[in-house]
Structure prediction request, 350 residues.
Amino acid sequence: MTATVQTQTLQAEWRDYFALTKPRVMSLVVFTGLCGLLAAPGNIHPVIGFTAVLCIALGAGGAGALNMWWEADIDAQMKRTAKRPLPQGRLRRNDARDFGVAISVASVLVMGLVVNWLAGAILAASILYYAVVYTIWLKPRTPQNIVIGGGAGAFPPLIGWVAVTNEITLMPVLLFVIIFMWTPPHFWALALFVKTDYAKAGIPMMPVVAGETATRRQILAYSAILLPVSLAPWWIGGTGVIYGAAALVLSGVFLALSVPVAFRRAGEDDRMKPEKRLFGYSVLYLFALFAALVADRLILGQGILE
Amino acid sequence: MTPEEQEQLKRSRRGRNIALALVLAAFVVLFYAITIVKVGTGNG
Prediction:
């Protein structure tokens, strides 16, 4: 009963609102969005560029808050998420919803008015996609939820790029596809070592529904596709050799690390070392790949010729 | 409500107000900078 009483009497700290925006996810969103912006051909005033990245971050934060608003009951049942503000009762559920809607709408309007409306429209689409299509509609219904959710995380570099160019070309779409293909092996590696939690909360995560073996094979399949996809920006001449070489090495290691994950079975009290190694590497991979993309553009200046 | 809870409530409200004030001040600075840039480049 203490929890109920606290919900009504204690007011939320500012940190609770901050936690609603999923700051750790946001760091990856800000980074890939900024890389898309820096790698795009053309110039953007630093103040406008900063505003674009800020809007991407705010939009992601708003979508994160809406996700937590919708999933408060599910989060309460899982060890990884039970400490979030809503399951802890530190915040009213409707306040989380209103906060999410407010910063989402603000991010889209500022992006449209200050940067350009194409970037604003894609930002709006990405928020709706994550909060509605993924969180509300598909996540509780299909074991392919991570593949679909990966689409939401794939938007930031595309939005960053379009903020500069004001048009959708093949390069930003390829950046989208890279993150799209990266998400399933990244997340399923995690799901393999925390799967008991998802089963308890009734979320049809791949290892729970299709079984461990099928999940492991799919991790390998996506990692294998990621190799040519990550090299595509170089093949079409959108980047120079710095990115090409980095993509080859990084994706090669990704594939090599996913092979042991694909062909083993977890025993009793398994420490899941290959899975944890693949998950840890996958985060490093994305940072390194996008850093290489920006380094390539800044050093070789490829995009300028377009 | 106990005096301790009252105190706690005041503290968290004060914290939220300060955070909101800082965010709003940051936006004022940002929009000022954007205005200068837009007027300066004639893209307004």
User: Anything to note?
Assistant: Chain A has a mean pLDDT of 89. The interface with chain B takes residues 9-14, 17, 45, 47-48, 50-51, 54, 114 of chain A (CB under 8 Å). The CA atoms of residues 134 and 148 of chain A lie 7 Å apart.
